[in-house]
Amino acid sequence: MSVATAPNYDLTQRDGLDTSLLEVSMGPHHPSTHGVFRMDVKLDGETVVDLKPVFGYLHRNHEKLAEDMSYLANMPFTDRLDYLNSMTNNWAYALAAEQLVEIEVPERAEYLRVVMSELTRLVNHTCLVGFFINDLGALGTPLLYGFREREKILDLFEEASGARMMCNYFRFGGLRKDVPDGWLDRARKVVDDFPSFLDEYGKLLCENEIILSRTQGIGVLPRDLAVNAGITGPMLRASGVNYDLRKVDAYGIYDRFNFRVPYGEVGDSYDRFMVRMLEMRESLEILKQALEDIPEGPVMGSAPRVFKPKPQEVYGRIEGPKGELGFYLIADGTPKPYRYRVRPPSFINLTVLRDMCLGQKVADAVVILGSIDIVLGEVDR
Amino acid sequence: MSELPHEPVIQQFPDVEWEEAAGALVVPAAKAPEVAQWLHDHNTLALDYCSNVTGVDYLEREVKEKITNDDGQEETVTKTEPGRIDVVYHLYSMRNKTGPLVLKQRTGRDNAEAASLTPVWRSCELQEREIYDLFGVKFTGHPDLRRILMWDEFEGHPMRRDYEEPCDYEWEPTPHGEVLEKHKKGKVIA
Amino acid sequence: MTTGNTSPGIDLDEATRLELERAGIIVSQVDFIYNWARGGSVWPLTFGLACCAIEMIASATSRFDIARFGSEVFRPSPRQADLMIVSGTVTKKMAPQVVRIYNQMPEPKWVIAMGACAISGGPFKQGYNVLKGIDRYIPVDVYLPGCPPRPEAVLQSLNYLQEKIRKQDIRKDPAFTKGRRQYPVPEFAGTDLEPPYNPQVWSPPENPNTEPVVPPKKSAA
Fold it and tell me: Hey, what CATH topology would domain C42-166 get?
C-alpha cells in the first residue's frame, strides 16, 4: 500500500530528547472544520503525528426515518443531505427510484434536470473555493465573491422550485412543474455573465503566490491509494484518474453534450482546487449547449398513482459535485422502502484524511480538510 | 442487479452461491477475503473500486410457498426463515469502467460476525465501522473497529428493525388523532 | 437616536431640553443608553451546525448584510461573543458541547434558535440521536421558524432581539444581579442523555392523553 505522508517524513520513532506529544481536539465547534466535525490531532511541536477524525455530531438517522416514509415523502429529506447541492441529491434519488418502476422521463424534463444539476455544480464549486480560501486565511473576500454569484443562481432556483436551498424539485418521472416564462432567458443571462466572474476569480487566486506556496505539495494523494480508498469526484480526478460518472455511466442525457473532464497530475491541494475551477468552465459549456437545445413539452412522465414497486434491489448513482452519490434501495412490495441507503461521497473521501495529514503541519491539516470538500449533512446523514 | 458476469467466480469458488432475485453473489464469511482478493487481481474483471458497503437487517419471518406435495396437489407451506443480517458490497472497476458486481455476506442476528474486506479495498474501512455501530456486526480483520456515528457509551444498535427508540417525543408525536390511529395500523403517511 | 426624544421617561420640558442640547448635554436614562448600545452591537458566535448555517452565512454576505444591524463581526471564540445563533439540528452527541459553549459566553448573552430543528427537532424529530429542541438545556430568547429561514428572516429575528434588549431593566437584569448564567452539562448515558432535559429551563407540556403515547412498533418485513 502506498503511503501519502509529506516527502522526507520519517515514520519511525525519534530517540534522544524525552518530549511528550501535544493532543489537541480541533472541533466540533471550530471556524474551519466546515461544520460539526472533530479531529483529534497528536502534535510533535507543530507536526501532525496522529489524527483521529470523530464523526456523528450531525447524525440525524436519515436512513431509519426513510423506512417509515413512503418513497415520495423521502424526497425532501434528500435535500438536507448535502445541503449546498439539493438538486443533485434529488436527482440521485429519483434515478434510483425510477429504476424500480418503468417510467419514461420526457425530453424537456431531462434537459431541465441537466441544467439544474450543472447550476448546482457551479454553486457548489464557487462556495467551496470561497470556503477553502477562507481557511487559508483570506477571511471573507473570496467567500463573499462566491456567495454573490451563488445568490444569482439561487434566485433562479427560487423561481423554478419555490425555495432557495431545499428545492424538492425532482419527482419520479420528471420534475414537479415547469419553469416559469422568461426563466430560460434569465438562466442564459446568468450563464453568459459567469465567465467574466471566473476570469476575475481566477486572476485573483490561481497564480497567487500565497496560495501556491500554501497548497502545492500539501496533502498529496497517490493514484492507487485514491482508487483503493474509494475516493470519487474532483478529489479522485485531481490524483490523475479519469473517472467521471457523467462519461462512464452517461445517466440522463449526458452523452449528448460535448464537454471535457479536467484531471490533475500530482494530487495535492492545489490540484484539487484547480480541478474545481476548471470544472466550473466545463459546466458552463454543458449549460450553454443544454439551454440552446431544450425542447418544449411536458415535464412529468406518467408515474404510477401509488408507488409500490415489486421486490427488487437497485443502486442508482450520479456524479454529484462532491463525488459519487449513490442510493441503494430495497423494495419489498409495500409503499415504503425496506432499506434505504445513501452512499455518501464526503464520508468516504475522509478515509484518507489521516494519511494525507501525517507529517504536515497543523495549519496544513486545515488546508487539506478544506480541499477534500466535506459537508457534514452527508458525512453523518 | 449485477451487470458483470458472475460465472467465472462460481467456477473458481464452488462455495459461492448466486442469488437470482437480488442479482448478487453470496459468499461465506470464511472465504470472503480470498474471493475479494481474487476479484481485485483478476485480469478482465479488475474490480478495484468498492463503492458501497451496506447492512440490511431481516427479522425472523414466515414465508408462504406453494409446492406440490406427494399426492400431486398444490398446497401452501409456511416456512420460518431465520433472521439474518446481510452485508452488501457494490464493486466496480475503475480501470475498465464497467458496471457493478454485488457481493453479499450473510450472518445471523445473534453474535453477528463477518469478514472484513478492508485489507483488499480501503473504502470499506469507515463503512464497515458504521455497520458495526448501527447493526452490531463484528468484522474480523478490521484494523480499527469501534463506534463511529454514535457516542462510545451508547448501548444498542439503532438500525436494527427491532430497536426501540427512547420515548422522548413530548406528548405529541408527529401523527395524532385520526392520523395516529391509521399510523398504528401500519397505513402510510404519504 | 439624535432625532426624536433623547430623554424618554424623564419629565423635561421642551425648552430646557433644547437649551441643554445646544450646550452639548443630553439627559437620559442609563437603561436607555445601555440598551441602545448593547442592542446596536450584538456580535454573534460562529455556531453553524447544519443547513441553517448556510443561510446564516448568506445573511452575513453583501446582499443581505447583517453588519448594518450591528453584527459587524462573527467571533469564533465564545468568550468574545454576545449572541449564539443555534442554526441547525442539535444532536444528542453535540448537545453537551452546545451547553459548554453557552456556559463560556460572558453576560449579557442571548440565544436565537434558528430553524425548525433547533426549536423542536424539526423534520428529524423521530430520531434516536436528535435533541428535540435546544431549549431543553439553555434558555432561548427568540425562536425563528423556517427550514431554512430566509436571510431576511434572520435579520428580522435580530430586530426582535434588539427590541427585547431595549426593554431590559438594568436593575433587574440577571447579568448584573446574579452573574454569569451557567447550566449543568448533560452526560452520555446508555440510550439517551443524562438528564434528558434541564428542569430549570424546560418542562414537558401537559399531556391531555390518558394513556401514554409511545412510538408505534415497526413491522417485521
Answer: Rossmann fold (3.40.50)
ipTM > 0.90? no
Return the bridge partners of A308, or none: none
Q: Looking at residue C215, what is its pLDDT?
A: 60
Which other chains touch chain B, taking contact as 3+ CB pairs less than 8 Å apart? Answer: A, C
**Cα angle for residues B24, B18, A319 (degrees, 5° grid):** 15
What's the pTM value of the predicted model, to 2 decimals?
A: 0.88
CATH label, B7-184, candidates 3.10.50.30, 3.30.70.1120, 1.20.120.140, 3.30.460.80: 3.30.460.80
Q: Å from C121 to nearest chain B CA?
A: 9
**Angle formed by the axes of helices A141-161 and A107-136, nearest 10°:** 160
**Which residues in chain C are contacts of B153 at CB distance < 8 A?**
188-190
**C148 upstream amide cis, omega within 30 of 0:** yes
The residues with which C114 forms a beta bridge, in sequence order, are C87, C144
Domain A62-380 has CATH 3.30.420.60: no
d(CA A42, CA A178): 54
C-alpha span between C128 and C133 (Å, rounded): 13
List chain B domain ranges: 7-184
Please state, for a pLDDT cut of 90, what percent of chain A lies above it: 49
Q: Are C80 and C106 in contact, with CB atoms under 8 Å apart?
A: no
pLDDT digits (tens, 9 = 90+) for C148-203: 899 999 999 999 999 998 888 878 876 677 788 889 999 888 888 888 888 888 87
Per-residue pLDDT, B176: 58
